[in-house]
Amino acid sequence: MAIRPIRLFGDPVLRRRAIEVVDFDTEIRQLVTDLTDTMLEAPGAGLAAPQIGVGLRVFTWYVDDEVGHLINPSLDLSEEVQDGPEGCLSLPELTYDCIRALSVVATGFNMYGDPVRIEGSELLARAIQHETDHLDGVLFIDRLDAEARKAAMKEIRESEWFGMEHPTVRVSPHATRGFGL
Questions:
Q1: Per-residue pLDDT at 30
Q2: Which segments are annotated as binding site?
Q3: What is the CATH T-level fold of the domain 12-158, as seen in this structure?
Q4: DSSP per residue over 76-95, as a string?
């Protein structure tokens, strides 16, 4: 079990686009294990690699007692939308209603490099969209309307954790092509 520190809002790694995984090796399998262990310990409904300082396109989820992961995701979103509460492990104790697609079909790979397809709606769709956003350097507060985002930013600035020193970034064993720290 490897519980890793979760990066908080303000850490630059959360605003960078993660790079695609090209080697499905033991390091990727360890990353998926670390993400899963950290997510379950937190606890959370999902966790993306940048949230533990790794700039690779990998995330895990835990929704309706199902644990899963996806590498190099590509999403096909429904036109129907849902509006509901959303939070983030990188923004502790912050919850705001956020509009997301109601359902999603996500394709990508598992930790062994096998193609996978996940279909989900409601909470699973929300988690997959949220975590994929993390891989693109997007936080859920970026999707809020101007008034809600202003309130969220005020709440962040007033939080106990805002401005805390962040842990050292783990250097990826994979070629980062300038995207790693």
A1: 96
A2: 88, 130, 134
A3: Peptide Deformylase (3.90.45)
A4: EE-S-EEEEEEEETTEEEEE
pLDDT reported for residue 174: 45
Angle at 39 between CA 31 and CA 77, to 5 degrees: 90
The residues that are catalytic are 131
Delimit the domains of the chain by residue range.
Answer: 12-158
Q: Cis peptide before 43, with omega less than 30 degrees from 0?
A: yes
| Alpha carbon separation from 3 to 32, 35, 48 (Å, rounded) | 12, 8, 14
Of 131, 139, 30, 153, nearest to 75 by C-alpha is 131
Mean pLDDT by 10 residues, the chain (181 residues): 88 95 95 95 94 96 95 96 94 94 97 97 96 96 92 91 56 42 34
Binding residues for Fe cation: 88, 130, 134
100: left (phi over 0), alpha (psi -120 to 50) or beta: beta
Whether 64 contacts 124, CB under 8 Å: yes
